[in-house]
Design a protein that fits this description.
heterodimer; A: 415 residues; mainly alpha; 2 domains; two-stranded antiparallel sheet; 16 helices; 69% helix; globular; B: 263 residues; alpha/beta; Rossmann fold; six-stranded mixed β-sheet; four-stranded antiparallel β-sheet; 11 helices; 10 strands
């Protein structure tokens, strides 16, 4: 039932959005003819759409509230259960095999333009998985993650420029330097948490970009570094199309390595300690976990992947400049993690593909990308705070024959 | 019997307020000791000093290992203290809420295992073995506290009494010589209270000393070998349960001045 209260609320929401988006969607200044173009129809659209959206959300939430008068907890679990299909090992394996076959055969069926876009998306998968270690597992909100990406990219650009080092040589160096910068950021923020941590990491990201922009002798400033070599393949010269395909497969390899390593870390003594740190810092220390060490390791390992992705980025575009490493990049990577599901590897992969591929195919509304980002995040926080694919809690079997719990094939939520 | 923990004139100030004032205590290996006192007497503050969450303003915490070598606990970080063999539970339950029951106990094994980052990625046989051992020990501990059948539930889905028992299992996973329990019976029904008493006795039978903060006097009188009574941060009485039961200072602390006349 739609009450008058609902209508009023939705109406106010519509007005508020019209007001908020007014400067962005209504006013268009033509600097050449010195005229202002007023696009009032856009405002009407915004008003109507946000009115309807707000009304729908209110109705859905109202039904939920009256329908099951249970605790928030059980509500969460029912929505998690919808994705239980993914938790069945057989289904999961089938999905894994299908998607890997699709990914591997992709360049055979699609143009190099498409392949190039997908390569970019996969790069963000690596970035998302790296940030996932810091934000998703260890619960440390890092808004300056792009700094490590920049470190990786400039590592390759500068080492290539000055010492003519190749891609394969620099890839591990980029990872190591990323880790080093992760530690560099980690030390001063050891005692910070929550909002304070977010602010300092945000500033760190800005500092790195500003240094790259202003220290021209070192980084060539805003004009950037061009003519970076692409990755070599045993000294062969590849055609432009072949290079794109080659880069694509390299990226697939890097994604595979990332998933393998992150997955193993997650299900280990180290991964459990990260999660304990996220859950309760005091209890975590009381259980004998060295808070300093485990925090620093999360920062360093997260940054390693950004460093390697950065090297790859420089090799792919053959050009780097500070404009590629603005705060918006950090925000996008964070969106990937939050949208996909904090702490969930599959979730982060899906999140990256959605957030990077969608804008590419929605070029028509590219101007409103930031608006859409904000909207998606707000809606996600309301509807599915645990992300598209919520992290799966691992179940363990008792290795001996004597076994009080059935087996790991039965997820806890099924029993 | 040797003195596992010796506390010498421990004081703790918060700004101008003295929460603990020159407190002395001795816990022998394998003993059950209770620390009682009215609310705000400084009992939990004492636990926090002991486990390194607070740095005491003054005084000494002396720790003696079974091989009779002694060292001070002052200035050690919380995780180092846990390594030395002190494990604790919390008055306001602090489980890793979104992790499973089993994982909570497995985290307790952290300081007794050694897998490094590289080891976790490469998984050599030694790591696989250690992981298997961790799971086995954790399951065994869950069976001991009666939680094995909910091993894969989220910790915050457990009922209150079960969460308290899980905290004990998690603390036992760190292989303590001294277990610190902060009001373990709080909020438990009589049945759960009895089970808890049996559990504490069985833990004590394994030569683990127990230091107990508890308001349930019957439980304290039945369990404790030795009782310390705190009031406003000062030690007002210590001794065997019978002695404490009849100590005028303790009765005054708990019941007020008139309590003496009626008692």
């Amino acid at each position: 039932m739609i009450t008058r209260h609902d209508l009023r609320h939705a109406g106010l929401t519509g007005l508020w959005f019209m007001f908020l988006t007014f400067p962005l969607v209504v006013i268009k200044i033509n600097p050449i003819e010195h005229t202002v173009h007023w696009r009032w129809s856009n405002m009407v659209w915004i008003g109507v759409v946000s009115f309807l959206a707000s009304l729908t959300i209110r109705l859905v939430q109202g039904r939920r509230r009256t329908g099951e008068n249970e605790k928030q907890q059980s509500l969460l679990q029912t929505s998690v259960r919808q994705f239980d299909l993914l938790r069945r090992p057989a289904f999961f394996r089938a999905a894994l095999i299908t998607s890997s076959v699709l990914l591997i055969s992709f360049p055979l069926f699609f143009s190099s333009y498409q392949v190039n876009i997908l390569t970019t998306a996969l790069m963000y998968v690596v970035l998302g998985l790296g940030l996932n270690i810091v934000v998703g597992m260890a619960g440390l909100l890092d808004l300056g993650y792009v700094a490590f990406y920049a470190v990786g990219a400039y590592t390759y650009a500068l080492l290539h420029l000055h010492f003519n080092l190749g891609f394969w040589m620099v890839l591990p160096i980029g990872g190591l330097l990323g880790a080093l910068f992760g530690l560099l950021l980690g030390f001063p923020v050891l005692r910070l948490r929550g909002d304070y941590l977010a602010i300092v990491t945000l500033a760190f990201g800005q500092i790195v970009r500003l240094i790259l922009e202003n220290w021209s002798e070192f980084s060539k400033g805003p004009s950037g570094i061009a003519n970076i070599a692409r990755p070599g393949l045993f000294g062969l010269t590849l055609s432009p199309e072949a290079t794109i395909t080659y880069l694509y497969y390299l990226m697939i390899g890097l994604v595979g390595l990332t998933v393998f390593v992150v997955n193993r870390l997650q299900n280990s003594r180290i991964g459990r300690a990260w999660q304990a740190l996220r859950e309760d810092e005091i209890a975590c220390q009381a259980m004998g976990i060295d808070k300093t060490k485990i925090k620093l390791s999360a920062f360093a390992l997260g940054a390693t992947w950004a460093g390697m992705a950065g090297v790859f980025f420089a090799a792919k575009t053959t050009f780097v400049n500070p404009a590629s490493f603005t705060f918006i990049e950090s925000a996008i990577i964070l969106c990937i993690v939050v949208l996909g599901g904090m702490g969930s590897i599959a979730g982060v992969m899906v999140g990256a593909l959605i957030l990077i591929l969608l804008p590419e195919y929605l070029r028509a509304v590219a101007d409103y990308r930031m608006l859409a980002f904000g909207a998606i995040l707000v809606v996600m926080m309301i509807v599915r705070p645990q992300g598209l694919i919520a992290p799966k809690r691992r179940t363990y079997t008792l290795p001996s024959t004597h076994n009080p719990v059935n087996s790991s094939d039965v997820p806890a939520s099924d029993r | 019997m040797f003195p596992l923990l010796t506390v010498n004139k421990l004081s703790m100030d918060f700004g101008g307020i003295r929460a603990i004032d020159k407190f002395n205590m001795r816990i022998n290996a394998g003993e059950i000791v209770a620390l009682i006192g009215p609310n705000g007497a400084g009992k939990t503050t004492f636990f926090n000093c002991l486990t390194g969450i607070y740095q005491p303003t003054d005084g000494e915490l002396l720790w003696t290992l079974p091989n009779r070598s002694s060292r001070t606990l002052n200035g050690l970080k919380p995780h180092r203290i846990t390594e030395q063999g002190l494990a604790r539970t919390f008055q306001n339950i602090r489980l890793f809420r979104s992790m499973t029951v089993l994982e909570n106990v497995m985290i307790g094994r952290h300081c007794r295992t050694a897998t490094t980052i590289l080891g976790a990625v490469l998984r050599p046989p030694s790591v696989t073995r250690e992981e298997k051992e961790t799971i086995e020990i954790s399951f065994a501990l869950l069976e001991r506290v009666g939680l094995a059948d909910v091993a894969h539930e989220r910790a915050d889905n457990l009922p209150y009494g079960a969460q308290r028992r899980l905290e004990i299992a998690r603390a036992l996973a760190t292989e303590p010589l001294l277990l610190l329990l902060d009001e373990p019976a709080a909020g438990m029904n009589p049945q759960e209270g009895q089970e808890l008493e049996a559990l504490i006795r069985s833990i004590n039978n394994d030569q683990i000393a127990v230091l107990l903060i508890e308001h349930d006097m019957q439980l304290v009188m039945r369990l404790a070998d030795h009782i310390f009574v705190l009031e406003y941060g000062r030690l007002i009485a210590e001794g065997a349960p019978e002695k404490i039961r009849n100590d005028p200072a303790v009765i005054r602390a708990y019941l007020g001045e008139e309590g003496i006349h009626h008692a």
